[in-house]
């Protein structure tokens, strides 16, 4: 299958039981029908446990209003970075 954006051949990866297609050139991510729902369902299951919510908040949460000044070029990560880490 070709990337709709740049016509590069898409690669397939499996993350937590969800197959996703991604473009190595433009880094676009293409989901088939139902894959977004699976990702959302797994995230809801993950955050249903209080210990997961608290651990992720400590890992990814806002650690103060001035945190962006210390690392201005670093993006915030989220639990979805585990899915999309090519």
List keywords for this structure.
86 residues; alpha+beta
Could you spell the SSE succession in H and E letters?
A: EEEHHH
Low-confidence stretches: none
Question: What fraction of residues sit in β-strands?
Answer: 5-15%
C-alpha end-to-end distance: 18 Å
Give the strand order, joined by hyphens, for the main sheet: 1-2-3
Q: Indicate the percent of residues in helices.
A: 25-40%
Broad shape: elongated
| Mean pLDDT score | 77
Protein name: Zf-TFIIB domain-containing protein
Organism: Pontibacter saemangeumensis
Domain Transcription factor zinc-finger: 2-42
Description:
It comes from Pontibacter saemangeumensis. The structure is a single chain. The protein contains 3 helices and 3 strands. It is of the alpha+beta class. A hairpin with a 6-residue loop joins strand 2 and strand 3. The longest helix is centred in the middle third of the chain and has 13 residues. The two termini are 18 Å apart. The model has no long low-confidence stretch (mean pLDDT 77).
Summarize the structure.
Residues 2-42 form the Transcription factor zinc-finger domain. By secondary structure, this protein is α+β, with helices and mostly antiparallel strands.
Secondary structure layout:
Blueprint: E1 11-15, E2 18-22, E3 29-30, H1 35-47, H2 50-60, H3 67-70
Antiparallel strand pairs: 1-2, 2-3
Domain Transcription factor zinc-finger: 2-42
Protein name: Zf-TFIIB domain-containing protein
